[in-house]
Structures are given as structure tokens and as C-alpha cells.
Write a structure and sequence with these properties.
Elements (H helix, E strand, L loop, with lengths): L6 H12 L5 H14 L4 H16 L8 H13 L6 H9 L1 H4 L11 H18 L4 H14 L2 H13 L9 H14 L3 H12 L10 H13 L3 H15 L6 H12 L4 H10 L10 H20 L6 E2 L7 E2 H23 L3 H10 L33 H5 L11 H16 L4 H15 L3 H15 L5 H17 L3 H15 L4 H17 L3 H14 L9 H17 L3 H15 L6 H16 L3 H18 L2 H16 L3 H21 L3 H22 E3 L6 E3 L4 H16 L5 H17 L3 H15 L7 H14 L1
Antiparallel strand pairs: 1-2, 3-4
Helix pairs in contact: 1-2, 1-3, 2-3, 3-4, 7-8, 8-9, 10-11, 10-12, 11-12, 12-13, 12-14, 13-14, 13-26, 14-15, 14-16, 15-16, 16-17, 16-18, 17-18, 20-23, 21-22, 22-23, 23-24, 23-25, 24-25, 25-26, 26-27, 27-28, 28-29, 29-30, 30-31, 31-32, 31-33, 32-33, 33-34, 34-35, 35-36, 35-37, 36-37
Length: about 775
């Protein structure tokens, strides 16, 4: 490391070390930085001390944080004036790290933690901070060691204390407080308390991630199964693979293990093999081992103790072997905490988790929930049964709930062989369904199929049940009962997974359709990703249309998550398939969506090419309005690289608009084109004349650009002059006035200002334009 001789070099050394990955090497470098900084005086030493505290906090040496923190306190006691605002805040904030943060480490004595808690309370009081953080820390200590009376008092004090600058993030506090209510047996109160986090009113870097995981089992116990399922599908992608959110990952695994989704739990376990590492932090590792043991015990109870599973590195594991190992590890770690605490609270909590019994036999998640086949078994899948998959792939894109006939055909094909063997009551209900279908009586169809499912009970084969639920789902969607459609689509997926993988793809696609229609995009995404994995685009199975639709929806889901690069990936992949279709409207729309996403993702050159392709495609389809809009977007994408080229592209958009106006005979299209022509001219003006964000004044981006921009805006104003939309004309006239003044045509600009002022006089709704007009006059005077 370079020798540090002044504060600037110290700051650079700290910055460089912060770029390194968290861990022992970063902490060692921080120790070296502190050794050099103490020679430069107290200001440098303080900066280096807090850097070392941070490095320890995010390393395997976290227990060492107490030493530099005590050093920081000594420096404060010697001369508080040396601490700037940031260092002062860090000093008091880090008290939480040396109290509750040390609870996770059984090697740190409880007496030391309590001493720091007492010191925290004293110093917060002297500094004038509220005791909210103090009571929160006391609650964590008392709750951890099982002192329920003290924990209750501290919790009440935490809630009652005023929030101050030392309070934890409001979202994090709310999430943890709700967990306490749940631990006390009041799930309903816990869920109510979590609502501001779950619905997005309170968020942070790790919320609602944690709250979604914490809410899973309380919601199941409350019977709010749809919400529990949604929170799992929405929440797991947020925490997948995160070391700092290991607790939350464990809660998702626990949820799956206790709701009949052991196969899903195994997939989650396989996502996180690093959590078994021996050098991980004891407390989260203890929780992960405990939930692993719970899952393995479930597999053993299901007769699958011989199943090969993911476990600690270095050997192969069966479920039965890992069950015993994980239980031992979890209880051993719990014993270390109890030995430190002098109680049995931690072991009791772990044992309670290990002893947990399933809350449900089965909660369909829309994801594959079939355990790997044992020796000699044949997994579900293979060729579609009796054309079931082909019966549904023709469903129109984005038309959830209208394809009941195709769903009927699929169900009939899947279960036809067993209908004659059904009880008379089931056959009668199916006959009523058929008669209602012939009469296009949705209510009768719903009643008939609902009765058939109820009367059939548990007897029918999985394939029949998948088809029946899928039919009912489509009927309910056609009746605009989306919650009901979603419920039965989940059931259809669960049964299809036990009968035929190709049918399951169809069921997932329809489930995805209903979830998308209900704007439940977080829930739809994992379902559609599973469908995409298993989808066969060959015409005799699912077809290209299904592939394009699934990719399209996944792009929508990614865009909703503000992941434009991922959205573009899906839309481009769909466009590559659609480019060979006779009708090119879907191809054009996908190219447009991909271009917009690429631009948001900062992939400017790719966005330019995609916009150009989309504009050409809209020209091929004869959709002039979309061609104009896409061409304008293309020009804006090009502008940062080449203003002159952007101007030429805008000219092309104007010509397309003019040609369409000359050729169109459709009154609605003509009306829209008359609006788009002045809009295009104005956008062209703004492309070549840049508006300064500080002064608000326009400047040309090349010689003669201001004059050209004024001419374009002036033409737009003349087209808008007779418009019934006076506000729109005012905006256009004032743009032309600004550009006239900037290009030297001051008199023309002032004439336009006066025209606007005369037009808006006495009109309260338009008075806001008066301020803009006055500003232009002021520019002329100045």
C-alpha cells in the first residue's frame, strides 16, 4: 500500500479499499490504513477508525468491531470538536452495531453486550437523542435471551418513543415489529402492522423483501392463501442468493415445506448451496440449518428419504442423511447461544421450528411441484395426451377468459376416457355444462362444471381434474371473475404437473394470462418463466404463438420491475420468432417495445437500430400513425450522436404524416394525423434547438439551426391556429415566439406573444400561459 502522508491521500486510500469485496482482505487493509492515519492527527484517525469499523462489520472479523468502536469513543471524550457531522452521526449510529449486532455472535459475552447497551442509553441521553433506538436495542437483547417481560416493556417503549435521527429505517422497524406480534400469536395484528411495507408505502433496500417473507406463514394461518402465494412469488426473486437476506430465504423454504410444496422448497435449497459454508455467521446459518432439517424431515415423512439433495460441499447427501446432519448443526449452534446467554430460549425456538407440522396438504403455486422421480419411475411429461396442448395454443394473445371452447376441448381430450366411469351425478353435471355451452350460457357453464368438480371429489385422474379446472377458469374469466379464474387456473396447473408436462405449459400460460389481466405481474413472472422453460414451439405441440405471447408478457413483467435490459431481451426474442409471420403487426410492436427498453437501458446504438427497424415495419403494415411516432422516437435516440441525422429522420416523419393526410379517408385517422403533424414539426424544432436547463433559453445545435427551428415551429403554430384546443395552440404559439426571438425575428415573436395574451384574456383556465408570455417579453427587454 502507498504511504499515506495527508488527508487527501487518506481519503483516496479509504475509497480504494471500499471498492474491494467485503471480507478479511478488506479488513486487513483497513487496519493498515488506521496504523498510518493515527500519525496524521485525530481528524485522520477518526476517519480511519470508522472505515475499520465498517470493514469489520461486513467481514468474518465482525467480533473485532468492539475495539475500534471503543477507540472512537475515547477520541470523542478527548475532543468532540474534532468530529464533523458525519463522524458524530456514525459514532452514535454504530452503538446499534456493538449492542444488538453482537447478539448474532455467541463468542461475544452477553455481559459485554449489556454493558454497551447501558453505555448507549447514557450517551444518547447526554447527546439529546430520543430513546427509540435504545429501547429497540433493549428489545432485541431481551427477546433473544427469552426475557419476555423485559422484551414487552422495551417493545412498548420502542413504539412510544419519538422517531429521531438515530431511529432505524421506518420500513425495517415496521417489519420487525410485525414479527413480534406474530411471535406472540397475533397474526392478524402482525399483517395489519406490515401493510405499509407490503403495499409499498414504506420501502428501503431490504424492504419489502423481509416483510414479504415474514408474512408467509401468518397469512397461511389466517386462511389468506392467495395473499400468501402472491407474497412468495413476488418476494422470493427479491432475496434469492442474497447472503444478507438468508433469514428471508429460509422463511420461503419453510413456507414451501409446510404447504405441500416440498419440490419447490428443494429448488430453493439448491439455489443457495453457499449457505451451508462453515465460515458463515452463526445465527443465520443456524436458522438455515433448522429449515433444511424441517424440509428433509418432510421428505422422509413422504417416503422420499433416499432422494438425492443439495447439502454441504464435499459429499453426496440423501434427504434422510441431511435431515440428521442439519438438525444436529442447528441445535449445536443454538446451544452455543444458550451457553452464552444462560437461558434455553434459542434452543427452544429452534426445536419449535423443527417440530412444525404442515399447515396445508397442498397450496398450488403455479410452479412445478413434483418431486424428482425415484428409481424406475416415469416422470410426468412426454408427448401431449390426445392433443390437449394443441387444443389450447390457438388462444388469442392477451384475451384471458375468451377461449372457453379450446379449454373445453382440452379437458375433454384429457379426461374423455374416464367420463363414462364417473358417478351419475358427475355425468349429469357435465351434461348440464354441455347444454349451457351450446346456448352460450356462461352462468350455466359455471354451475355445471363447478358441480362436476365437487361431485367428482378426489376420485378422477389428475389429467381430468386439470382439464376441468382449466375449463372452469376460462368460464370465470369470460364472466370477468378474475380472482376465481386465477384460483382454478392454479388448480389446473397443479394437477397438470402430475399428468402431462405439455398440458402444464398450457395451463401455466392461461394462468399467466389471467394474472397479467389482473395486473398481478410479480406473481405472473415466475409462472411464465416456468412455462417458457418447458414450452415446445413446434406447431404440433404449443406453437410459436404461445412462445411469442409468453415472451411478450415476460417483457412486460421485467419492464414493470424497472429492468429494461431484461424486458428488451424477451421482446427481441419474441420479435425474432414473429418476423416470419405473414402478418407483421406483432413484429412491429415488439420491435418498438424493444427499442424503447434498449434506450432506457442505455443501449443507445442498439435502440437506434431497433427504432429504425420498427419504423420500417410500421410502414409495411400501413400504420402511418405508429410509423410517425416510432420515427420521432428514432430521431430522439439518434440526436445525442448526430443532430443533423436526427433532423433528417424528423423530416422523414413529417413526410410520412403529410402523405398519410393526403391518402387517408378514415375520419378518425385524419383527425389524429392533423394533431400529429404539428406535434412532429415541434419535436423537430426541439431536436435541433437545445433548451438550456438553467436559463430556459434555446440555442441552435448547428449553424442556422435556430432559424430552421423557428420555421418549423411557425408552421406548426399556423396548423394549430384554427384548432378547438386553445391550450394546445397557446403552447405551440409560445414555442414559436421563443424561437423567433432567439433567431432574431423579435417582432414576429412579440406578435405571437400578444396574440396569446389576447386569446387568454379573461379565461381562468388559460391564465397560466400569461406567465410564459411575460417571460418571453422579459427576455426581449434584457
Amino acid at each position: 500500500m502507498t504511504e499515506i502522508t495527508d488527508l487527501a491521500m487518506l481519503q483516496e486510500a479509504i475509497w480504494e479499499n471500499n471498492q474491494r469485496p467485503h471480507g478479511t482482505s478488506q479488513a486487513a487493509a483497513a487496519e493498515n490504513i488506521l496504523a498510518q492515519a493515527e500519525l496524521l492527527g485525530p481528524e485522520a484517525e477518526i476517519k480511519a477508525v470508522f472505515h475499520l469499523i465498517s470493514a469489520y462489520e461486513f467481514s468474518a472479523d465482525r467480533h473485532k468491531v468492539l475495539v475500534p468502536f471503543a477507540r472512537a469513543l475515547r477520541l470523542w471524550d478527548q475532543d468532540p470538536s474534532v468530529f464533523d457531522h458525519a463522524a458524530t452521526h456514525a459514532l452514535f449510529w454504530d452503538f446499534k452495531w456493538v449492542t444488538t449486532g453482537m447478539l448474532d455472535l455467541p463468542r461475544v459475552p452477553l455481559a459485554a453486550i449489556e454493558n454497551w447497551q447501558t453505555e448507549m442509553e447514557r450517551r444518547y441521553r447526554l447527546a439529546g437523542h430520543t430513546d427509540r433506538a435504545v429501547r429497540m436495542s433493549e428489545f432485541y437483547i431481551a427477546d433473544h435471551v427469552g426475557d419476555t417481560e423485559r422484551a414487552g416493556r422495551a417493545f412498548d417503549g420502542w413504539l412510544a418513543a419519538e422517531r429521531g435521527e438515530m431511529a432505524d429505517c421506518h420500513a425495517c422497524e415496521t417489519a420487525r415489529q410485525g414479527e413480534f406480534y406474530s411471535d406472540q400469536g397475533d397474526d392478524a395484528k402482525a399483517v395489519r402492522h406490515w401493510e405499509p411495507v407490503l403495499d409499498g408505502r414504506l420501502t428501503c433496500a431490504e424492504e419489502p423483501h423481509r416483510a414479504l417473507a415474514r408474512s408467509l406463514l401468518p397469512l397461511v394461518r389466517l386462511g389468506r392463501l392467495d395473499e400468501a402465494r402472491t407474497n412468495h412469488l413476488r418476494g422470493y426473486p427479491m432475496v434469492k442468493g442474497s447472503e444478507s437476506l438468508m433469514h428471508s430465504v429460509a422463511k420461503h423454504i419453510e413456507f414451501c415445506a409446510l404447504t405441500g410444496n416440498e419440490a419447490r422448497a428443494l429448488e430453493l435449497l439448491a439455489d443457495t448451496p453457499g449457505y451451508f459454508q462453515a465460515d458463515g455467521e452463526p445465527e443465520p446459518r443456524m436458522g438455515f440449518y433448522a429449515v433444511t432439517a424441517l424440509l428433509m424431515d418432510r421428505l422422509v415423512a413422504l417416503g422420499r428419504g433416499d432422494l438425492r439433495v443439495t447439502g454441504p460441499a464435499g459429499r453426496a447427501w440423501t434427504a434422510a442423511e441431511l435431515a440428521g446432519h442439519a438438525r444436529t448443526e442447528a441445535l449445536t449452534l443454538a446451544g452455543r447461544f444458550d451457553a452464552r446467554n444462560g437461558t434455553t430460549a434459542v434452543s427452544e425456538r429452534v426445536q419449535a421450528g423443527l417440530d412444525a407440522r404442515p399447515l396445508l396438504d397442498r397450496l398450488p403455486l403455479g410452479l412445478r411441484a413434483v418431486l424428482p422421480a425415484g428409481a424406475g419411475a416415469s416422470p410426468a411429461g412426454g408427448a401431449p395426451t390426445s392433443g390437449v396442448a394443441q387444443g389450447l395454443v390457438g388462444m388469442p394473445a392477451g384475451t384471458a377468459g375468451v377461449a372457453t371452447e379450446e379449454a373445453d376441448d382440452a379437458a375433454e381430450a384429457e379426461g374423455a376416457d374416464g367420463v363414462d366411469e364417473m358417478p351419475a351425478a358427475v355425468r349429469a353435471a357435465l351434461d348440464r355444462y354441455e347444454k349451457a355451452r351450446e346456448n352460450e350460457d356462461l352462468a350455466g357453464m359455471r354451475a355445471g362444471m363447478s358441480e362436476a368438480i365437487d361431485q367428482a371429489g378426489e376420485a378422477p385422474a389428475p389429467g381430468w381434474r386439470a382439464g376441468a379446472h382449466l375449463q372452469l377458469s376460462e368460464v370465470l374469466a369470460a364472466e370477468e371473475d378474475l380472482p376465481g379464474a386465477v384460483h382454478h387456473a392454479y388448480e389446473a396447473v397443479a394437477w397438470a404437473d402430475l399428468s402431462d408436462r405439455n398440458v402444464a405449459v398450457v395451463a401455466r400460460t392461461r394462468l399467466g394470462a389471467h394474472l397479467m389481466a389482473g395486473r398481478r405481474l410479480d406473481e405472473a413472472a415466475p409462472v411464465l418463466e416456468q412455462a417458457l422453460t418447458d414450452l415446445d414451439p413446434s406447431p404440433e405441440v404449443h406453437g410459436e404463438g404461445t412462445l411469442v405471447q409468453v415472451r411478450w408478457w415476460l417483457g412486460d413483467c421485467a419492464a414493470d420491475r424497472h429492468e429494461p435490459a431484461e424486458a428488451a431481451k424477451h421482446w427481441l426474442a419474441a420479435a425474432q420468432v414473429a418476423q416470419h409471420w405473414p402478418e407483421q403487426d406483432d413484429h412491429a410492436m415488439l420491435a418498438t417495445l424493444a427499442a424503447e427498453a434498449l434506450e432506457r437501458a442505455g443501449e443507445n446504438l442498439s435502440a437506434e437500430l431497433a427504432y429504425e427497424r420498427a419504423a420500417d415495419l410500421w410502414a409495411e403494415t400501413g400504420d402511418a400513425l405508429r410509423q410517425v411516432r416510432t420515427t420521432r422516437a428514432w430521431a430522439w435516440a439518434v440526436r445525442g450522436r448526430d443532430v443533423a441525422e436526427a433532423g433528417r429522420i424528423m423530416t422523414g416523419a413529417t413526410r410520412v404524416c403529410e402523405a398519410a393526410l393526403a391518402d387517408s379517408t378514415d375520419p378518425d385517422e385524419l383527425a389524429e394525423l392533423r394533431l400529429q403533424l404539428p406535434e412532429t414539426l415541434e419535436q423537430h424544432a426541439r431536436v435541433i434547438a437545445d433548451e438550456d436547463v438553467e436559463t430556459g433559453r434555446f440555442g441552435g445545435l448547428y449553424a442556422g439551426a435556430l432559424e430552421e427551428a423557428y420555421a418549423l415551429a411557425s408552421r406548426a403554430e399556423s396548423l394549430l391556429r384554427e384548432s378547438d384546443d386553445v391550450a394546445r395552440w397557446c403552447r405551440g404559439a409560445l414555442l414559436a415566439a421563443e424561437l423567433a426571438v432567439e433567431s432574431g425575428s423579435t417582432a414576429s415573436g412579440l406578435e405571437l406573444v400578444a396574440a396569446v395574451e389576447a386569446r387568454i384574456e379573461g379565461d381562468e383556465e388559460l391564465r397560466g400561459f400569461g406567465g410564459h408570455a411575460g417571460w418571453i417579453r422579459d427576455q426581449v427587454i434584457s
